[in-house]
Amino acid sequence: MSDSGTRGRAVSLLPPNATTAERALEATTATASDLPVPLRSLWNPDTCPADLLPWLAWALSLDSWQPYWPERIKRQRIRDTIEIQRRKGTAKSVRDVVRSFGGSLALREWWQKADKGEPHTFDVVLTLGTGVPNNAEFQQDIVDEISRTKPVRSHFTFTAGLRASGGIGIAGAARPFIYRRISATAE
Questions:
Q1: Kind of pairing, strands 177-181 and 166-168?
Q2: Distances from the Cα of 30 to the Cαs of 2, 16, 37, 126, in angstroms?
Q3: What pTM value is reported for the model?
Q4: Which 8-state DSSP code applies to residue 12?
Q5: Which of 77, 93, 113, 180 gives the lowest tally of CB atoms within 10 Å of its CB?
Q6: Kindly report the CA angle at 105 between 96 and 78, in degrees rounded to 5?
Q7: How many angstroms separate the CA atoms of 82 and 96, rounded?
Q8: Contact 82, 59 (CB under 8 A)
Q9: Rounded mean pLDDT of the chain?
Q10: pLDDT, tens digit, 9 for 90 and up, residues 102-117
Q11: pLDDT per position as a tens digit, 122-144
């Protein structure tokens, strides 16, 4: 705070009987408020510096975080975390979790099958997009997030696939999907 009679000098808010330590602390912290803190850019997953993304994820209560994820996956996970947390326990939240990892999925619940399955079960067929890690560790991260997000009473089977595209001749095109079944058990 400045007073017009002090010509720009800061006026102390301490009482006249303040100790030397209190005056030293006031002098030390007087310029702390002059530091520019770009809060708007720090709380935005698109503009936050990459080295601060883990802290932003923590502040938004993101359930898991891995340092080997690509930066675009990290930013997307942070972007989607509030919506996922809001809808946790629904099929939409499971879809949103997989989408935040850069994949797409076909989710079929027990009542949607031709032969009705066991109640409270669903099948997940994951197709990973390009530019995302395609290894067992990354797929396990997705399975773990599905397990955290799904309804608690539900169980699921997980099938992972790779997406490939190709063409046949001039007139036709084919888009084969190759699926690999992964057996995952929760302990």
A1: unpaired
A2: 12, 18, 16, 55
A3: 0.67
A4: P
A5: 180
A6: 25
A7: 11
A8: no
A9: 83
A10: 988 889 998 888 888 8
A11: 999 988 877 788 888 999 999 99
